């Protein structure tokens, strides 16, 4: 199982705070509270803050705030990259009359910590104060997505949607607020009942569910555990406990809970689905498939079970079976747009395929109450299907619509990214990299595959994964998780170029911590001992190549490349979950250029041979020559299995899940392009790279 996220304790001046999933700090309070939560993280209504100290006179408050801001301004002057100080000062600016100064600080913090719901809410308020309502709405939406029970964010999101004319969205927010307030009343009522009868199992379960509904998962788990103590066979209590433990990150405990439930109730459909999804999420794909198959057998007319089975089957290369399952899911739930997108990603639709007219009907029916995401699913599915049939003009028209719908809900600050990459180039000189790499961790185990999405990276990882000495971890957050926890653990950490301020022991701790986390990802490894190499294919790690070299000077860095226009058009045709720059042609072209310039910098400052460039077109032209070059660079003996990469059954979770199950093909080179007028934003963004 994956290791639990480590919580660290950091210090800024005399302010102590606990860093868990966010860096939420509310100056003037003790501990990790904010303006809208209690000490246990439970949502508080503003009207319930009766334990606040009496307010100071206005003049004293102004003086206090001015002194506090001055203090943190001084700290930031001395340590301009200190994220925690930046977040505190940005919050103070936002809430005390300087929103325009708050916005760049908060954006920078959120780029490094995108799970900070409070940060997005504060950014939204600052954007609203400066008249940027569209961006403010997106920030409020992100805060409410990260923490669905965040009352203040829901209030602001509802108001913003109402002002923009989205009455349906506003009503939805207000309904969630009313439900949240109702939950708080229910908690009081259930506690009164339990005071009179502590063994009331039904009420314990109801209280646990209510706590879960508002995100208080620790308290929920406690109530479900009590219910199971009094009624060990109770399915509802066991299901609730498993869900609460999952939310708390106690994955092994959650698995054990579901396994105990299924030992007592082997025909529990929901138990098999919950356990299957948990195992699937944590890379135990074959075990997950077993539970999904049992769920399908128990309830063959349940579309979610068919879709869950399909998603797991496609990852291990059983594409035909996966497609059949997606088709069954569509026949059972033809209104679920995501199933169409999933099917078209892994198979081609013929002109007479019955799925195609069903998609067209969904697209044409404007009376259906579909969300933007569901409409985007339809457009991406039609875009892929029509492209496969050679109807490229119609295909691209759908891609333009689908991307525009996605882009509407994304906050992306390309200016901040440009500044960050420029600072990286300034700070990571050849001398600075070489100085710290001398005493880096000597392990040759890490292999980092970096580059732009849709550049052939999954193919390269599949070639490596076919070698008996390599474990392919795929796209994992391990490196960024390691860095975030290091930032919380070590007060001297700085953004962009943090390692120079740390001691040798601190740097070695970070290097060892990453290796520990990396090896914890290894599951179902058939070899003796640990893998010789473990890949990390999180492509955005190209931002951290300087730090990678400093921490692990013997790590391999493989940079996958492809024709810039082909790369960008392939990105535009793919509905990514976590690539916020791919939904606008202009932003996509400019981001490609930023990435290209940073990679040119790394080539200039790294020692000769430290990084390997692999062009997708070269791999297609001569697989064996390219594969041998990759394996040799990784310091491994050649193995002929690397040429049969498409036979590997290791799980693949990228958008190339179907392509890497086939031998090399040339159709992705020189892909169809729309007319120059349509492509103009992309070509202008790419400049002379086009």
UniProtKB/TrEMBL annotation:
Gene3D superfamilies, alphabetized: P-loop containing nucleotide triphosphate hydrolases, Tetratricopeptide repeat domain
PANTHER family assigned to the protein according to its UniProt record, in alphabetical order: PTHR44998, UDP-N-ACETYLGLUCOSAMINE--PEPTIDE N-ACETYLGLUCOSAMINYLTRANSFERASE 110 KDA SUBUNIT
PROSITE patterns (UniProt xref): TPR
Biological processes, Gene Ontology terms: protein O-linked glycosylation
Keywords assigned by UniProt, alphabetized: TPR repeat, Transferase
Region listing for Disordered, in residue ranges: 27-61
Protein name per the record: Sulfotransferase family protein
Record field: transmembrane: none
A molecular-function term among this protein's GO annotations: glycosyltransferase activity
UniProt repeat feature TPR, residue ranges: 83-116, 117-150, 201-234, 269-302, 303-336
Pfam entry (one): Sulfotransfer_3
């Amino acid at each position: 199982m994956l290791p639990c996220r480590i919580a660290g304790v950091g210090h800024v001046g005399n302010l102590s705070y606990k860093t868990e999933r966010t860096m939420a700090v509310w100056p003037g309070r003790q501990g990790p509270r904010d303006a809208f939560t209690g000490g246990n993280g439970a949502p508080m209504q503003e009207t319930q803050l009766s334990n606040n100290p009496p307010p100071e006179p206005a003049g004293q408050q102004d003086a206090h705030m001015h002194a506090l801001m001055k203090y943190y301004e001084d700290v930031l002057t001395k340590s301009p990259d200190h994220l925690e100080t930046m977040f505190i000062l940005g919050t103070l600016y936002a809430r005390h009359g300087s929103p325009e100064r708050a916005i760049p600080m908060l954006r920078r913090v959120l780029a490094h910590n995108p799970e900070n719901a409070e940060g997005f809410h504060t950014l939204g308020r600052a954007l609203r104060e400066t008249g940027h309502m569209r961006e403010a709405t997106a920030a409020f939406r992100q805060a409410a997505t990260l923490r669905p029970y965040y009352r203040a964010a829901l209030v602001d999101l509802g108001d913003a949607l109402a002002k923009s004319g989205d009455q349906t969205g506003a009503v939805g927010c207000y309904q969630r607020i009313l439900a949240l307030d109702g939950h708080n009343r229910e908690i009081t009522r259930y506690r009164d009942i339990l005071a009179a009868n502590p063994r009331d199992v039904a009420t314990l379960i109801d209280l646990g569910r209510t706590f879960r509904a508002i995100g208080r998962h620790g308290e929920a788990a406690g109530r479900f555990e009590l219910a199971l103590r009094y009624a060990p066979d109770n399915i509802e209590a066991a299901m609730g406990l498993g869900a609460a433990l999952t939310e708390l990150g106690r994955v092994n405990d959650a698995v054990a809970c579901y396994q105990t439930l299924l030992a007592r109730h082997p025909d529990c459909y929901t138990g098999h689905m919950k356990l299957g999804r948990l195992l699937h999420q944590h890379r135990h794909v074959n075990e997950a498939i077993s539970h999904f198959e049992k769920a399908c057998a128990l309830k063959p007319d349940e579309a979610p079970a068919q879709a869950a089975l399909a998603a797991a089957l496609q990852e291990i290369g059983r594409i035909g079976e996966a497609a059949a399952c997606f088709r069954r899911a569509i026949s059972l739930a033809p209104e679920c747009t995501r199933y169409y997108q999933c099917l078209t990603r892994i198979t081609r639709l013929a002109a007479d395929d019955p799925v195609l007219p069903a998609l067209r009907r969904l697209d044409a029916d404007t009376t259906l109450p579909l969300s933007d995401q569901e409409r985007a699913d339809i457009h991406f599915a039609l875009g892929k299907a029509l492209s496969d049939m050679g109807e490229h003009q119609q295909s691209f028209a759908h891609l333009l619509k689908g991307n525009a719908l996605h882009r509407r809900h994304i906050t992306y600050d390309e200016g901040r990214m440009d500044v960050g990459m420029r600072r990286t180039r300034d700070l990571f000189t050849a001398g600075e990299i070489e100085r710290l790499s001398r005493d880096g961790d000597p392990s040759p185990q890490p292999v980092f595959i970096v580059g732009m999405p849709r550049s052939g990276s999954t193919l390269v990882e599949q070639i490596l994964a076919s070698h008996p000495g390599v474990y392919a971890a795929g796209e994992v957050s391990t490196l960024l998780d390691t860095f975030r926890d290091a930032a919380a653990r070590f007060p001297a950490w700085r953004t962009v170029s943090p390692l120079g301020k740390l001691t040798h022991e601190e740097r070695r701790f970070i290097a060892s911590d990453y290796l520990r986390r990396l090896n914890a990802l290894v599951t179902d490894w058939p070899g003796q001992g640990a893998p010789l190499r473990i890949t990390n294919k999180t492509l955005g790690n190209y931002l951290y190549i300087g730090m990678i070299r400093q921490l692990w000077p013997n790590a391999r860095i493989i940079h996958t490349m492809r024709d810039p226009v082909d790369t960008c058009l392939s990105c535009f045709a793919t509905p990514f979950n976590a690539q916020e720059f791919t939904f606008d042609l202009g932003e996509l072209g400019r981001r490609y250029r930023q990435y290209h310039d940073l990679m040119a910098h790394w080539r200039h400052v790294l020692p000769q041979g430290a990084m390997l460039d692999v062009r997708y077109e070269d791999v297609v032209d001569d697989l064996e020559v390219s594969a041998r070059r990759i394996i040799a660079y990784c310091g491994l003996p050649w193995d002929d299995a690397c040429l049969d990469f498409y036979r590997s059954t290791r799980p693949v979770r990228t958008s190339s899940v179907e392509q890497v199950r086939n031998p090399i093909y040339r159709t992705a080179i020189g892909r169809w392009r729309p007319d120059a007028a349509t492509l103009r934003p992309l070509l202008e963004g790419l400049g002379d790279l086009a």
